[in-house]
Amino acid sequence: MAAGIVSYGAYVPRLRIATESIANVWGQDPVAMAKGLGVQSKSVPGADEDVVTMAVMASRMAMRRAGLPGTAVGAVYVGSESHPYAVKPTATIVAEAIEATPLLTAADFEFACKAGTAAIQACMGLVSSGMIENGLAVGADTSQGAPGDPLEYSASAGAAAFLIGTRDLVALIDRTCSFTTDTPDFWRREGQRYPRHGGRFTGAPAYFRHIASCGRELLERSGSKPSDYKYAIFHQPNGKFPLRAAEDLGFRPEQLKPGLLTPVIGNTYSAAVPLGLAATLDVAQPGDRIFVTAYGSGAGADSFDITVTDRILSQDRTGTPTVQSMIDRKVMIDYAIYAKLRGKLMLGGGAE
Amino acid sequence: MRDVAVLGVGITQFGEVWESSLRDLGIQAGFEAMRDARIRSDEIDALFVGNMAAGRLIEQTHIGALIADHAGLAGRKVPAVTIECADASGAAAFHHAYLSVASGLHDIVVVGGAEKMTDLPDEEVTEIMATSLDQQWEAFFGATLFSEYAMIARRHMHEYGTTREQMAAVAVKNHAHGALNPKAQFQRPIKLETVLGASAVAEPLGVLDCAPISDGAAALVLCPADRARKVSDTYVKVAASAQAGDTLAMHSRDSLCAFEATRVAMEKALKLAGKSRKEIGLAEVHDVTTISEILAVEDLGFVKKGEGGHAAESGMTALGGELPINTSGGLKARGHPLGATGIAQVIEIVEQLKGKAGKRQVKDARVGLAHNIGGCGATAFVHILEAVR
Amino acid sequence: MTGKAGVRFWRETSSRYNLVGNRCGVCGTSYLPPRPVCLKCHRESLGKMEDLKLKGTGEVLSYTVVHEAKRNFELQLPYIMAIIKMDEGPALTAQIVDCSPQDVKIGSRVTAVFRKIGEEGKSGVIYYGYKFVLD
Question: Which DSSP letter does residue A208 get?
């Protein structure tokens, strides 16, 4: 059975910090940083938000749009690199919060920024094989960059959820493929607070190699070319990389527009491509083809060939905000508040 | 049931009493009450102690046993019990001590209240005070005792036009009274502007709208009225001891602007005492916040619902006014060691009725009332005491 | 190592996550959290209380801005506490978030969201539940 997207949901927290505010703290040129990274601001989770709360909000939106009861969900997979627990899955809390318990399978995924798309692939397998009717795949992160590290400008927070099934689809996933190697471009050891990365090694041998290889593989297997697609979404660690990757494959900047969110909300890691896809589906029309390639450090890329159906217009999305409206409703904060919220201050007293 | 009289009273300094532990405070008040009552320890039939939170504040439960032992009563195996109704524990202990004598079970009992609140940091004490709310459905979500009263205040302002100035007038009055009470935690008058300008605790309540964290203990000796009559023709008798309850969580109540439990307890007390409201000459009410006194004045029926704001502002409830309220300084200025307050309130009424209130004396005080609330209104006690001459 | 209070809070999950209360099968009064017995019908309601999931929408009855520190809530100061009357009838106590205090009024319409309520220190269980945002 052909698998696809039954519905989707998204969540972007409302707080933002400007690149300028971060640059001023570390003595860097704010204009040059913003320009060099292609990032103007990034989203910041509130004190009472984390991967679990954002995943729940996105999942509930997807369920509401699908108009299905929680019992119709046979699997919940949440991909993140900032799950609040190292052991105890986010997925079970999400499952409880959408009333899908207890007859379902659940697990958390980790694969840097492509844990969410890996979850989509897993759900595709389960529904296509008939093992379950619908599966919920969520990508969510509240990722952190070490203070003063370039990643601090882009590591941000967000979530997107996709209900995968075989019936009543707003978009068909015609094909998916992946390109996976053992490449140490970016990592975080168990117990460490912040990730580390290989500097410029994260470029050509990591991000670009995997995206290009996987993207080409998908185009070849699909027998398609870039101009066949209305939209293209690439993993977006900054505002520049995806434009280059797109160009290398033969895509044009206009195709990336609705799905390129990093310049205003930063890199939401496991939610980056899922949110880009959600934002694209918010504006897509029946018949539109969408090319998606996610990338996760460590390393791997997942590509998807998606065709939007008529149902995208008939599904009731009233009362549920678009990704753009969540991006637009923002409150700017300064570095001091940001540091407090992100736990970068050493607290004393009985706070532990 | 036979009539019960107060034979003696004792009360410690209220405030931050660093040198004294809970047991020290407890026996200090108890011994003073026994001296005042001129009784010996071998005459004590039972000890009742009101305490709310020693289990968390000093990690000690079984307070009745603790105080009895420290007072030297363990040798005679005197029965002792701790009674808890949040910060109405003092009144609750008094109620049960009274019943034990009225019923004939005991003759001489010592009833006290004690709390030691300053051995922990403020944030923890705030958390512990919030345990008198619904832990699972109010405190869990961030509610504190003062945040609950703040919501009452805002609703009262919305429904009746009560102002912050009217609330502040309660604090000014009670501090003026406290200045005349050598045992009070705060003994200096304060100005209205100071109350209004104090830092916020939970808007619209500021620091000076809220009772302080206090250490302290208070105790009374109760006996059958016959015994008191043998000592003197004039004595104070317990005319009524009444209690009423309500839902634990404030959000379960019909109104956010009234404590029904107070109203019901008051009706019961008046009936038991065979008295009308007009006969009440003074009252100690539960002003854990300024709005609490405004509510009390209304719920006790001294003014119509919604008009409580005028009571302190107009001088009606000040010393020298029509109905002096909280001549001791109230919880606000005298202090609020949680389990001790209910007893301290009764003691103030007793002293007034005996003409021993010094500079705070209300002229011709004959009948007085003590009103003690647990948490945010789930428990209310009203005691009426009468001078028998 | 054993953790402290996770179990006590686990019992309330469906009410705290999904606003599941109940309704008296005799008089129709609804409650959140669910009550074992109706406050009005008493014994008559035993065994007749039915689960009821609230929609999550309601109106502010009263509110305050908390400035005093309660342990484990210090980092959230100042925060808005409110009593909210849900459309189905029951009132509950919760925080209002994502707005400035000036925006909240008695009568404001609000909708429930899923947020972190607290945690048992850095190595303990995390508690989730309802907070509200202005419509």
Answer: I
Measured CA to CA, the distance from residue A120 to residue B14 in angstroms comes to: 65
Q: What are chain A's domains?
A: 4-170+321-341 (3.40.47.10), 173-311 (3.40.47.10)
Per-residue pLDDT at A49: 97
pLDDT for residue A351: 47
Q: Which helix (H) or strand (E) holds A301?
A: strand A298-308
- Is A81 in the active site? yes
Tell me if C91 is assigned to some domain: yes
Alpha carbon distance B350, B387 (integer Å): 8
Q: Which amino acid is at C33?
A: P
Q: Chain A residue with minimal CA distance to C19?
A: A97
Residues of chain B with pLDDT under 70: none
Would you place residue A352 in the very low, low, confident or very high pLDDT band (cuts 50, 70, 90)? very low
What is the average per-residue pLDDT within A126-137? Answer: 98
User: Which structural domains are found in chain B, ordered by start?
Assistant: 4-121+213-231 (3.40.47.10)
How far apart are the C-alpha atoms of B111 and B96, rounded to whole Å? 9
Q: Does A60 touch chain C (CB under 8 A)?
A: yes
Helix (H), strand (E) at residue B54: helix B54-57
Q: What is residue C1's predicted lDDT score, i.e. its pLDDT?
A: 62
> Would you list the DSSP string of chain C?
---SSHHHHHTTHHHHHH-EEEEETTT--EESS--SSBTTTBGGGTT-EEEEE--SEEEEEEEEEE-S--TT-GGG-SEEEEEEEETTS-EEEEEEESS-GGG--TT-EEEEEEEEEEESSTTS-EEEEEEEEE-
**CB spacing of A97 vs C75 below 8 angstroms:** no
Domain count, chain C: 1
Enumerate residues 63 to 122 of chain B having a beta carbon within 8 A of any beta carbon in chain C.
122
Other Cβ atoms less than 10 A from the Cβ of B199: the count is 9
The residue to which tokens 């949110």 are assigned? A275
Cβ neighbourhood burial of A329 (10 Å; 0-12, 13-18, 19+): exposed
Classify residue A316 by burial, with Cβ atoms within 10 Å: 0-12, 13-18, 19+: exposed
Tell the residue number behind the tokens 């759900």, with chain if given.
A123
Reduced to 3 states, what is the DSSP secondary structure of residue B347?
Answer: helix
Type of residue at C83: I
Q: Which helix (H) or strand (E) holds A6?
A: strand A4-11
Chains that touch B (3 or more CB pairs under 8 A): A, C
